[in-house]
Design a protein that fits this description.
Layout lengths: L1 H50 L4 H43 L21 E9 L5 E10 L4 E6 L5 H8 L7 E6 L2 E2 L5 H7 E4 L10 H6 L7 H11 L2 H6 L17 H14 L4 E5 L7 H15 L3 E5 L3 H6 L2 E6 L2 E6 L1 H7 L2 H10 L4
Parallel strand pairs: 3-8, 3-9, 6-7, 7-8
Antiparallel strand pairs: 1-2, 1-4, 4-5, 9-10
Helix pairs in contact: 6-8, 8-9
Bound molecules: adenosine-5'-triphosphate and magnesium ion.
Magnesium ion binds next to helix 3.
Length: 360
Amino acid sequence: MEKFKVINRQHRDANIKAIFAYSVFFPVVEIVLALSIGLVVWWTSKEALHLQENQQGTVIAFILCLNLLFRPLRVLADKFNVLQMGIIASERVFKVLDNPEAAPPIATQTINPVRFKGKIEFENVKFSYLPDVPVLKGISFVAQPGETVALIGHTGSGKTSITGLLTRLYEFQEGDIRIDDKSVTSYSLDEIRSQVGVVLQDVFLFSGSILDNITLRNPSITLEKVEEASRMIGLHDFIMKLPGGYHYDVRERGVGLSMGQRQLLSFVRALLYNPSILILDEATSSIDSESEQLIQLAIDTLIKGRTSIVIAHRLSTIRKANRIMVLDKGVLVESGTHEQLMALNGHYARLFRMQFSTPQ
Ligand SMILES: Nc1ncnc2c1ncn2[C@@H]1O[C@H](COP(=O)(O)OP(=O)(O)OP(=O)(O)O)[C@@H](O)[C@H]1O
Ligand SMILES: [Mg+2]
């Protein structure tokens, strides 16, 4: 807070200085200009015009030309300001562009981008974002090809972190993660990320049309394919009702769409890429029951024929999973089907009662 206050104060002072300089500089220049023109007029009318008749026109033209000369100069000085701001902004952009890949692939030979069968195996995976603050404390589980595993647990228990490790957004410190019995570190990032589809908790939409947001401007995806996928997800009818259909502008962050519609849109995105492994981070926020049903159907479509890790908040999703894993402070504390875990009467039963005790 103190640091922030200091920086803020410096920023304010610098701003005031800049405004002061601005407010002094231009009036002074204007005054000097006006004075010099005044002098020219005064001198010529007093001296020069006596000597030579018919020179008034020349004097007027001279003054006008003088103005024509100075105006571009003034604009140039102003543009210099804009240029400076542009340079600073582009420096930031280049800093991002020049950032080398955080996790260079260890594999040197390129493996053919064959489709994964979809077996996922975590073996005693330990991970922390910051040294000394362990987030995952030895996670082990296996998901067979085609299985759906539901991951549940309190907020901050590390659910999203597990999925981040699978796509190698972060590197784990201990243990191993294997896809199809090979360590994720032996695949290239492209390979993993083209085969693992991720639907995030909060969907990011860019300003642009719905079509752009679904294809992410990948020109090889045709409108027909997009329509087919949206029909499967159940979003097609809604999109067609919008003005402009697939060319409807969703505006920055998708303010024109509801939460549920944004989720469905991100499902279409994932479906189009036909990944062999799917990670679905369900949105926590409540959604009206009509969208809820749509989303449920869409999830069924989406997980068919893929290994799926679903971070689930809805009972219907949880019950459909082949296995439920309960995460608590970075440790897998329970795993099994709904019935098994209810019979166990442990973490899951407690979570379940807490979340779904209200009659629905
Ligand atoms: N980028 C990060 N840097 C440092 N710490 C992080 C980062 N992301 C998450 N954490 C921490 O790691 C822990 C686990 O976070 P994670 O996002 O995996 O939780 P989650 O189970 O997905 O929670 P939620 O249900 O709220 O989505 C939290 O304590 C969080 O503060
Ligand atoms: Mg999360």
